[in-house]
Amino acid sequence: MTKSGSIVALLCITQLSQGLAGEKISEEDFLAEIPVALTATRLRQPAADSPVSTTIIDSEMIRAYGAVELADVLRLVPGFQVAHPSGERLTLSYHGQVDEFSRRMQVLIDGRSVYSPLLGHVDWAILPLNVEDIERIEVTRGPNAASYGANAFAAVINIITHHTALTQGTRLSVENGARGHERYFLSHSDQSGPFSYRVSTSYRKDNGFDSVEFPDDKNIRMLHLRGDYQLDPFNSLEFQFGYNQMRHLDGDTDADEILTDPVRTVKREHSFEMLRWQHDTGPDQSFELQFYHNREVVRDNFFTSSLDSLGFGALVAFDLDGTPGNEPDIDTSLGVPLPNSTLVNRYDLEFQHTFRPADLWRMVWGGSLRYDEAGGRSDFNTTSIHDTFNNKVYRLFAHMEWKPSTSWTFNLGAMAEKNDITTGIRVSPRISANYHISPQHTVRISANRAYRTPTLYEEYADSTTTSVEGIGLQDLRFSNGGLSPEKITTYELAWIGNIPRYRTSFELKLFREAISDILAEVKDHEYYDHPLNQALGFNVFDDVLFYTTNGYLNTNGIELQLDVRPTRDTRVHLGHTYSQQRGSSLGDINRFGTGVSRYDNLAKATPRAITTLQVIQNFAPDLQGSLAFHRYGLYEFEGGDDTGDFRILNFRLAKTVKLEHSNIEFAANFQNTLDEYFDYEKEQVFDNGLYLSVRAQFD
Amino acid sequence: MLNQVKHTLYRLTRRPATALLLFIFTVLPCTTYAEHDRQLNVSILNSHEGGYYSTFISRFRQTATVLAQKSQIDIRFDEKLVTDQFTPGPGDTLYVTVGSRAAISMLQSGATNPVLHTLLPEQTYTRISAMYPPRGDWHGRVFIDFHATSFLDLIKTSLPEKTRIGTILGPDSRQHAGALSARARNLGLELAIEYIEDENDIVTALKALQGRMQVFLALPDKQVHNRRTAKTILLSTYRYNIPVVAYSQAYVKAGALIGMYARPEDLADQAAEKLFRHINTKADVDCSNQPEVISIDINDSVSRLLARNIPAATYIERVMRENIARCAE
Q: Of A105, A490, A590, B18, whose CB is crowded by the most CB atoms within 10 A?
């Protein structure tokens, strides 16, 4: 064979063999590395080994619930209360301790903390998150600072979205229902080699509560992007970006609110960027580094009508400090500027290392640096929204699991935190011993401590309404600063069981929670008898509120969580909580100008009993029915009304039509088919409503 | 490293004859001189450099050297990469192909030399030998894969309470559908099968299996299981608490509950033994070309979540060894 002939033959052989071996299966398919999918961080701890109580709400439960507001689905968590202080705001509670702003929960979306550094609450209505993209919600019932940081105080809500590889294709949803509810959702996801992405967008609007006199309509626009890039079998990158905008009507038509809270449109914007690098060498070893930035902007700058037109001009001019004849230089032909806009930023850098130091041990440790800043002219009495107050937070945490035998699992964890608001370094420890009576039954005893750092507003508040000339017209809230963190200590005795024969798992726990150093919002009636109020017949000068550390709340109770699958096509999820509370905090000083102090009864915010139930029944592969039932004993949140006992019963029926390249689901959701109820203020009443939806999935 | 040594020692204890021979012929050569009756020229044709190909060849040469000394054969090795210009050597040269590409080149060459094809799937060999029928007197095989039905036995052994199995078959694996269904019936298992032509259909197929399976069985198929689809499969099944039973160590590392596979070192031992059985007896010893040494890996982290009562890997290995037909010694 000539040389050129040999080369041609070689090329032919090479190409042919590549063709033969490359397109079909070869030994490479048996021996080559595969990207680690179930990483050490993704694999959750089994309930029998866990140091804390956990409730998992998976995508099937979320879908079957048919929640209009995402947070409503959290009613399925034993002991949880969900309340609606207004058309655009929700507040959550686990065993009470809440007002209009739920400040005591850590909420994470794909590892990103989303509670606001300004007020400590979560804007549930405008989380940059579509319910269709959620894989599951893991709720830790109780503090978990050792894993999630200082504000994992009452509970932790960890929302995990689908990996982009699992949502390939195009999805479309249209919803229409009661209270003017409309929602349109469009998402597309695709994969190209090692890169997969998802783009989701939605628009939603509703008319708020029909029962209230003040307007509370809202509309929300959302854009969310997620990209996953597999660099090699051991390294992956995840990028997320989200932008949300809500416009809602706010304000009150009541005479005593018209000066400071007139009806107007408020625009809220939330956005974030997140980048995460994950290095996984197997199911037992994972290293994760992530950075994210959250930004919240509330645009709510407005003027009241002129003081003259409101009829206040002369009165305001009369005297602002109550001293006749000392008239301020104020132009009463102008309205009062109310610069309620706020700007909030959070920058967070975190690393986490999960590994097995020895056969019987598992460990996760890590640390984070966080920078929070918030600005608002009326919240902090500054001249610019960019005059911000900030808080730098440094954290180090470690958690170890030790299984010395098949009968025992021990968990020990702690988190040390230093921040600019509270002094010193605080350590939040956690310890538990799980005794496995049998492979199916475990008894757990645990103790846990966590702290809640005061929010930027609680620490630095100085809400002063000023005239255009800068003269103070109204003081609302202020803080003396130097606040201490709230402290919670919990003790639990739990029985975790599994009865395979009846496809049943359950957890029954006895708990005691002790919260001390409660950050109380205290009213000072200093201006109660202000001459302006006297002259008008209502309080233009409202109560002055300030923050101080004063109060306690002790809770004892029992909580059951039961999951049963009596047949392949039936799922039952049941939760029941019975608790007794005792606690108070300073509520008023100088009550009605008498100098008498009053303490608030904090126990009234928690119902004696809460029951939650969800049943999902697949009547046929393409026909699913579900119901959700909740029963609450009476409670009264701070700033709300006595709700009395109330029950909620929702039904949903969904029919799926399978076509060659698509699935289309038609669903009818009957909400609150029992009596009317309210869960916060008596004006915000829920009556029954029908919601219809069509969801299409195209390959 | 320590684990590797322990693992090797463990393997050797399961092959006492090999262990004894290794000891005798690696420790004693300095003091013992054996008269060699014959000479054997072995030409190793390699598909790729490095990685598990090197692991295989190194172990093969080591074991073959020991066995050659036992048989008083002077063995000489020659090693070529398949991308080199390949011209068959003299007729008495025995070829050992390592990997699919080497086997293809060998068969295409039309050489009449005795050949031992190793480290390739049975399906690959069947396909290329149909195109280029082997012409030599002897063409031994040591395949890397187990029969697809063996994995149903594996599920029956390791997860006896799980009776509903789901799998996705593609162009490479759909031929096993009949045998799988028959074996499932024999074992009292319900087998749900979805078929795909292209990896883009994987999510649809997984959705179709949802609710019909308690265990997902991953069988080798390029369109169904590759670097892109494996993550989707593992994440999707984990979401519904469904364990994955797979065919490779890497799959277990990535998140499958249990894997049954053959290690290159064990296949190299098997290939060397097969070679010398042929040389010494000239008998037809190809009654089974499956891996004789089974490796079982269990992902402990997945097991504690999805299958807490799974038997020990050593027990499963022992049962599976009895299930899989082997050549009589």
A: A105
